[in-house]
Amino acid sequence: MLKYEIFINPKWLQKLEDDIWEDEHVPALIKIGNKRYKIGLTYRGNVIRKKKKKSYNIIFQKPYLFDGAHEIHLNAEYDDISLSRNKLSLDFFDTIGVISPHSKHVLLYINGFCKGIYLELESFDQHLLKKRNLPDGPIIYATNYFANFSLISPENELKTSLNEGYTIKYGEEKDLSLLENFIAIINTLSNEEFEKEVDKFLDIEKYLRWLAGVVCTQNFDGFIHNYALYLNSKTNLFEITPWDYDGTWGRDLHGRKLDYDFVPITGYNTLTGRLLHIQPYRLQYKEIMTSILDNHFNIEALEPIIEEQFQLLNPFIRTDPYINMNEKSFEKEKDVILKFIKKRNGYLTEKLASL
């Protein structure tokens, strides 16, 4: 496993700790292999900031890029005792044809002290697009639960604006107006008008693949949060990508077990509901889901991948000061994931008939 070493003045570390919600980066150095890079460092995430093991956001300053990226995230995966669900999910999306950040596990040290196993994640930004040879285009993050493609908040209150819940990651503020127009169409057109207009805004096939991925991995938050929208400048259509998928594969974001049938095959959110109301799109979703269940989301396809992941992490479990378990206990979590896959596949296969 690759070793990352961060060196930082203790006063800057204390500054981060004094206000865990501060997003301003402090200066630091990171050593990767034999090379050192000047970076900006801050905490990232929401719930995780209150935990003992923090997640970090890193901006490369000198040089400006590292392996083609200007920004990376180091996720603590603190509430996922397998340390694997996020990576397994994002890799799964990649396999089924959805743009997804790449990731790898690293061993993190800060000022000589081992902070444990972290998951390095690509930032979904213009540099990722360039690395993937994708057309340039605005990127909009769904930053909270108001990003449900609706006029109504999750608390059943009228939103103050159509773009509430969204933040521009790459592009200009005017790019949000395109999303506002799309949300207005989702919520105001009749079924007949919506069917005629929706494919002028959305890459429907890719959205349905994303939907199948969220449903299979059972990320309850994934329908109204934990995603980004990318406006492909070649097609002028929105595409969608997953983000923060540790609450998956049979557990929620707090690490508690979820029943295999907790999320229905039709998923949630206003856009999904309107698309699946249209028969051709519902049948297209059924075909996509059938293919994924047959070829990708099953024990035969996933067990070797999961086994390899656990074999990589197992030797380093005792080096992580925040993990209170041994190698045998860690291995048991693999069975939780595998049992979930088997039961979830059976449940979804049974529900295909209802589509």
Quick synopsis:
This protein has helices at 10-18, 85-95, 126-131, 175-188, 191-197, 204-217, 270-276, 279-295, 299-313, 327-351; strands at residues 2-7, 26-32, 35-44, 55-62, 71-75, 103-110, 113-122, 139-142, 166-170, 227-232, 237-242.
> For the CA atoms, what is the radius of gyration?
21 Å
Please bin the fraction of helical residues.
Answer: 25-40%
Q: Reading side by side through the largest sheet, how are the strands ordered?
A: 1-2-3-4-5-7-6
Largest sheet: 7 strands, mixed, barrel
The arrangement of helices and strands along the chain is EHEEEEHEEHEEHHHEEHHHH
Structural class label = alpha+beta
What's the quaternary structure here?
Answer: single chain
Distinct helical segment count: 10
Distance between the termini: 44 Å
Instruction: Name the poorly predicted regions.
Output: none
Strands, count: 11
Mean pLDDT across every amino acid position: 95
Shape assignment: globular
Which range does the strand content fall in? Answer: 15-25%
Task: Characterise this structure.
This protein has a domain at 2-122. Strand 10 and strand 11 (237-242) form a beta hairpin. It has helices at 10-18, 85-95, 126-131, 175-188, 191-197, 204-217, 270-276, 279-295, 299-313, 327-351; strands spanning 2-7, 26-32, 35-44, 55-62, 71-75, 103-110, 113-122, 139-142, 166-170, 227-232, 237-242. The model has no long low-confidence stretch (mean pLDDT 95). The longest helix has 25 residues, at 327-351. The strands form two sheets. The chain has a seven-stranded mixed β-barrel. Strands 9-8-10-11 form a four-stranded antiparallel sheet. The chain is 35% helix and 21% strand. The protein is globular, with a radius of gyration of 21 Å. With 355 residues, the chain is an alpha+beta fold. It contains ten helices and eleven strands.
